[in-house]
Write a structure and sequence with these properties.
Blueprint: H1 8-16, E1 34-38, E2 44-47, E3 51-52, E4 60-61, E5 70-75, E6 82-87, E7 93-101, E8 105-110, E9 115-119
Antiparallel strand pairs: 1-2, 1-9, 3-4, 4-8, 5-6, 6-7, 7-8
Length: about 120
């Protein structure tokens, strides 16, 4: 999918740094095996084997499928310090990563509208 083919909601989230409403994303409860790709450029981002139910309302992953395809940036918007996750290939905003899981684990909190799932 090219940038011009994105829905208005995808453009708002991916290019304006927005967030989809919690518990509204199409991949929140997806339990199928496969890969999650960038909806804008198709880069492989996350594997279903790293997905878990965080209870936060967004698809959550313990790690990217390929670290070379994601970029982490400091995000100081909205009066807080967070780490933004972007697609390294096209620069699209995907969500944020938090260090709030047991045993110093990470939670990649990603908007469903930024993803395109390809089943195995």
């Amino acid at each position: 999918m090219e940038k011009k083919d994105l829905t208005p909601e995808q453009k708002r989230v991916m290019w304006e740094g927005g967030t989809e409403a919690p518990f509204s994303g199409k991949y929140l409860d997806n339990k199928k095996a496969g890969g999650y790709h960038c909806a804008a450029c198709g880069a492989m981002l996350f594997s279903s084997s790293a997905k878990f139910d965080s209870g936060t309302g967004w698809p959550s992953f313990t790690e990217p499928a390929n670290l070379a395809n994601v970029e982490l940036k400091t995000d100081s918007s909205h009066g807080m310090e967070r780490t933004e996750v972007t697609c390294k290939n096209c620069g699209a905003h995907l969500g944020h990563v938090f260090n709030d899981q047991p045993n110093n684990g990470q939670r990649y909190c990603i908007n469903s509208v930024c993803l395109d799932f390809k089943e195995k």
